[in-house]
């Protein structure tokens, strides 16, 4: 069976071929325009707005719908989630301890290039980790389960999967795991973005 293309073709005469032409296919999913109009009116009445951070998160979230590769879609969703994460300063005692580490390193005689790199790493310890901040963010959604897990466990699972994908871990998650996690992550981020708008409208 050969694709019947426009123009010259060269092909074996034995066995005798058959030709077929498959034209472009299209799929359309429709929704009643009234529901869209009502949703837009509700948003207008609520006077919702997005901060620059939330807008970037939403742009990444929306762009993920155009990605057909499961791994890339999951990573894009995690990028949207990490955009919403706000790392708070650690306690005064921890910051004081980190500062003492930086002072000790500065007077150790380490090569400047190494010292600058080490100092930058130590300074980042003044704020909570992305994992800590992400779990705190997840807790804002209450006790709703995602993919059969509580909020904190679900975030930790997604963050571990993200690390395995990005850093080329030998224990890469399967395609089914990534697809299932991505489906729940999509709902999770949608709920976070909806809560951001709701919280601002109440303020």
Distance between the termini: 66 Å
Task: Spell the H/E element sequence.
Answer: EEHHHHHHHH
Report the sheet with the most strands, covering strand number, pairing sense and barrel closure. 2 strands, parallel
Could you give the order of strands across the largest sheet?
A: 1-2
Please tally the β strands and state the result: 2
Oligomeric state of the chains present here = single chain
- Fraction of residues in β-strands: under 5%
Shape: extended
Keyword list:
single chain; 203 residues; mainly alpha; two-stranded parallel ribbon; 8 helices; 2 strands; 2% strand
Write up this protein:
This protein is an all-alpha fold and 203 residues long. The protein is 60% helix and 2% strand. The protein is built from eight helices and two strands; from the N terminus they run ββαααααααα. Strands 1-2 form a two-stranded parallel sheet. The mean pLDDT is 85.
Short description:
The chain is built from eight helices and two strands.
List the topology elements:
Layout: E1 2-3, E2 19-20, H1 33-46, H2 52-63, H3 70-84, H4 92-106, H5 112-124, H6 130-138, H7 151-166, H8 175-202
Parallel strand pairs: 1-2
Helix pairs in contact: 2-3, 2-8, 3-7, 3-8, 4-5, 6-7
